[in-house]
Amino acid sequence: MIMSLNRTRHLMLVSILPLGLLLASFLPNTIVTTAANAITAEEMLANPQLEERARNLSKQLRCLVCQNQSIDDSDADLARDLRREVRSQIAAGDSDDAIIDQLRQKYGDYVLLNPPLDPATMFLWLAPFAFMVLGGVIVLVARRQRGIEDVNELDASERAKIEKLLASRNDRDEPKT
Amino acid sequence: MSKIRLSFLLPLLAFGILALVGAVALYATLSGSRDPAQLPSVLVNKSAPRTNLASLMPNDAGDNMVQLAAFRGQPLLVNFFASWCAPCRAEAPALEMLSKRVAILGIAYKDRGEDTNSFLAQYGNPFRAIGMDTDGRMGIEWGVYGVPETYLLDANGVVKLRHAGPLTRGVIDATIIPALEALGS
Fold it and tell me: Residue A49's pLDDT is what?
């Protein structure tokens, strides 16, 4: 009995772990990346609101040379050129979506640090949830098989029956544990 | 007994399937000639961006613009290069060889005219025309992420192939020549 409880607990832990990782992945990127800003003062837009938009957009766009940094983080020449491009389009009055869309047409989805949800990336986005459900199913199945779900109080005759069954079962299990 | 085995096997089975999927994906990524550093170009099978650049060498007619549209009617290689780019020096002989077979338009990426000229004087000039992309804006239009990059266009100006990095004998034999042959050149 104790062994099976431990097992269930273990299974629950195993299925909670992916959940924790999933939640951690929703934390803002700023907590994970501590790289110094590559942006220089003369690049910035005079209007702080527009500059804020530019910074926000730059954080979503991949530097294609360094490949794992955003153009906001990267010191590469191309990153600077793309930052300039983003700012000149903001200054021209384009919407955020329009700017992202234009860069996607030139560099493809790869320019986005967050892959879009489409048929090709469906597995990537949905797999964590699928595994969570799978983990839940495994826990449920394991619990049902161990017979440790909450049940109504037993009456005396049922309890006696259980005692008897448990006694015989423990005898059988003893050599294994 | 069989029930216990099932709950034991289920996670194992799930892991096995996952590992198999991962192995297949890894194999597909690393096998063959696919280089993970080579990004796919979204331009392939699309019309090349409208390209109109100041020319490095104004022609006899006094025209000092290079227009991509003027090259329609024949396959064309478009090569982004720069005098400051070491791999561009390495691929100079390959371009020279290719220039006997197909017209090549050079685009000097973020380069100064005088530097471009001395680069050409030293390593040869395989180009029919050279456009100056001084601020790199045209490069962004084409999706260039590092020179040298080479694009093959068909007679209608549709991009058929993009190669990022220097053209080597291997690259030319494996991709450029077959693509040129497919275009009947």
Answer: 92
Mean pLDDT by 10 residues, chain B (185 residues): 68 91 85 64 90 83 85 96 95 94 96 95 95 94 93 95 92 93 87
CA of A120 vs chain B CAs: smallest distance (Å): 13
Nearest of B76, B64, B80 to residue B146 by alpha carbon? B80
User: What does the block give as tokens for A22?
Assistant: 């999933």
Facing residue for B140 by CB, picked from A11, A65, A85: A85
Domain B36-182 in CATH: superfamily?
Glutaredoxin (3.40.30.10)
Say whether A110 and B39 touch across the interface (CB within 8 A).
yes
Sequence-separated (6 or more) residues with CB below 8 Å from residue A17: none
Question: From B40, which residue of chain A is nearest by alpha-carbon distance?
Answer: A108
ipTM score: 0.77
Query: Given an 8 Å threshold on Cβ–Cβ distance, is A138 in contact with B7?
Result: yes
Two structure tokens written together for B25: 């994906």
Superfamily of domain A2-144: Cytochrome C biogenesis protein (1.10.8.640)
